[in-house]
């Protein structure tokens, strides 16, 4: 399901995955809106203007995932809870 970029603010992030790199947070992290970027856990940045596609997927057993595809071809997956 496609979603609007601002909808990310409605979720807390449980994991961050980009390529072979993955971080699982012990405590779900709030997303901070800082103008042209979103910041997660003071470590990860999401460039709002570089996003080509943003989709939401409900997986097994209540797990949810947001997939961010950038114009550069990079893909970031966020594990989320409401």
Describe this structure in words.
- The protein is an all-beta fold and 82 residues long.
- Helices cover 0% and strands 60% of the residues.
- The chain has no helices and eight strands.
- The strands form two sheets. A five-stranded antiparallel beta sheet has the order 2-1-8-7-6, with no helix packed on it. The chain has a three-stranded antiparallel beta sheet with strand order 3-4-5, with no helix packed on it.
- It is globular.
- The mean pLDDT is 92.
Summarize the structure.
0% of the residues lie in helices and 60% in strands. With 82 residues, it is mainly β. The chain is globular.
Describe the protein's topology.
Elements: E1 12-18, E2 21-29, E3 31-33, E4 37-40, E5 44-47, E6 51-58, E7 64-70, E8 75-81
Antiparallel strand pairs: 1-2, 1-8, 3-4, 4-5, 6-7, 7-8
Please tally the β strands and state the result: 8
Give the terminus-to-terminus CA distance.
Answer: 16 Å
Mean pLDDT: 92
Strand numbers in spatial order across the main sheet: 2-1-8-7-6
What Rg is obtained from the alpha carbons, in whole angstroms?
A: 12 Å
> Share of helix among residues?
under 10%
Report the portion of residues in β strands.
over 45%
Class by SSE composition? mainly beta
Q: What characteristic shape results from the CA principal axes?
A: globular
Instruction: Quickly count the helices.
Output: 0
Q: Low-confidence segments, ≥5 residues, pLDDT <50?
A: none
The run of helices and strands is EEEEEEEE
Largest sheet: 5 strands, antiparallel
């Amino acid at each position: 399901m496609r979603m609007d970029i601002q909808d990310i603010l409605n979720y807390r992030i449980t994991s961050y995955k980009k390529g072979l790199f993955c971080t699982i947070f012990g405590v779900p992290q709030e997303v901070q809106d800082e103008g042209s970027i979103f910041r997660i856990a003071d470590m990860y940045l999401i460039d709002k203007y570089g996003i080509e596609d943003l989709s939401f997927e409900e997986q097994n057993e209540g797990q949810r995932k947001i997939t961010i595809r950038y114009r550069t071809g990079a893909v970031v997956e966020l594990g989320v809870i409401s």
